[in-house]
Design brief:
By secondary structure, this protein is mainly alpha-helical. It has 3 helices and 2 strands; from the N terminus they run ββααα. It has a two-stranded antiparallel ribbon with strand order 1-2. The longest helix is centred in the last third of the chain and has 19 residues. The chain is globular. The two termini are about 25 Å apart.
């Protein structure tokens, strides 16, 4: 798994930890947990309450990166 350059300070993946799932660096919290929480209709604050080892800034960086990935696909202006 290659972690995008923009997220290398935030995310990590190691085959010996969580079977190599991409996770927030320094934690055992997989990024998938954040995405599942948001898709399930909950807020970032709800996610942070459940996973206090992840900062709001880390979660928002991942979500902005994901949003920009979609924006690039559809030719929409990127979010800074």
């Amino acid at each position: 798994m290659t972690i995008p350059k923009e997220l290398q300070d935030i995310l990590a993946a190691d085959p010996k930890i969580l079977s190599g799932a991409v996770r927030f660096k320094g934690t055992r919290v997989p990024v998938q947990a954040l995405l599942d929480t948001i898709i399930g209709g909950e807020t970032v604050d709800y996610f942070i309450d459940d996973f206090p080892d992840v900062t709001k800034a880390q979660a928002m960086a991942v979500l902005k990166w994901e949003q920009n990935k979609v924006r690039k696909t559809f030719g929409v202006e990127l979010v800074a």
